[in-house]
Design a protein that fits this description.
The complex is a heterodimer. By secondary structure, chain A is mainly beta. Chain A is about 0% helix and about 60% strand. The radius of gyration of chain A is 13 Å and the shape is globular. Chain B is an all-beta fold. In chain B, strands 2, 4, 5, 6, 9, 10 and 11 form a seven-stranded mixed sheet that branches. In chain B, strands 1-3-8-7 form a four-stranded antiparallel sheet, with no helix packed on it. In chain B, a hairpin with a 6-residue loop joins strand 5 and strand 6. The model of chain B has no long low-confidence stretch (mean pLDDT about 95). The chains are: A mainly beta, B mainly beta. At the A-B interface, strand 4 and strand 5 of A face strand 5 and strand 10 of B.
Chain lengths: ~110, ~110
């Protein structure tokens, strides 16, 4: 059974810092991995989708990498801003299932 | 293009009452999902559908039923609500990328 973990559970940084969020999964037979952002009281917003054949994806100040063999993905946020404060979740789509498995999320606070 | 919409946004039920949550998507996606999100438990899959007329159980299906009579709609029913079903419910649809609705907050007293 696929299990997804995220470290750290919470992170607080001053504005302007570069930061890395981590996602680990136990079964490397994945189809793709998706990073989401969730603001308090809101739904999830897709940030980046990485196919299993890709190593990384970039969107603006965000860069997500994928290392299938080690079961890890990282989300790099450059020059963090207070507006980046949210919970970030990763989700893995396995080769043999119909569903995404979600991690518990990392709660990020960027202090002005 | 509204994406994924959910109705209602908020509802209070008494134990034993029934209700239906409606999810609609306008992206012509085959796959649709119902999740619940609880503090400390993360997102858990209740039921899902891989196309019109199909449904399947997820991780926590007990106490819920679903129907997918039209491709764009996915309904989640609670036949006899219990306090343990107090939660935030999210609907999602996908092709490759998964898109989420804004959520329904349900309080069962």
């Amino acid at each position: 059974k696929q299990e997804v973990t995220q470290i750290p559970a919470a992170l607080s940084v001053p504005e302007g810092e570069n930061l890395v969020l981590n996602c680990s999964f136990t079964d490397s037979a994945i189809y793709n991995l998706q990073w989401f952002r969730q603001d308090p009281g809101k739904g999830l917003t897709s940030l980046l989708l990485i196919q299993s054949s890709q190593r990384e994806q970039t969107s603006g100040r965000l860069n997500a990498s994928l290392d299938k063999s080690s079961g890890r993905s990282t989300l790099y946020i450059a020059a963090s801003q207070p507006g980046d404060s949210a919970t970030y979740l990763c989700a893995v789509w396995g080769n043999y299932g119909q569903n995404f498995v979600f991690g518990p999320g990392t709660r990020l606070s960027v202090l002005p | 293009n509204a994406g994924v919409t959910q109705t209602p946004k908020f509802r209070v039920l008494k134990t034993g009452q029934s209700m239906t949550l409606l999810c609609a998507q306008d992206m012509n996606h085959e796959y649709m999902y119902w999740y619940r999100q609880d503090p400390g438990m993360g997102l858990r899959l209740i039921h899902y559908s891989v196309g019109e007329g199909t449904t399947a159980k997820g991780e926590v299906p007990d106490g819920y039923n679903v129907s997918r009579l039209k491709k764009q709609n996915f309904l989640l029913g609670l036949e006899s609500a219990a306090p343990s079903q107090t939660s935030v419910y999210f609907c999602a649809s996908r092709e490759e990328t998964q898109y989420f609705g804004p959520g329904t907050r349900l309080l069962v007293l």
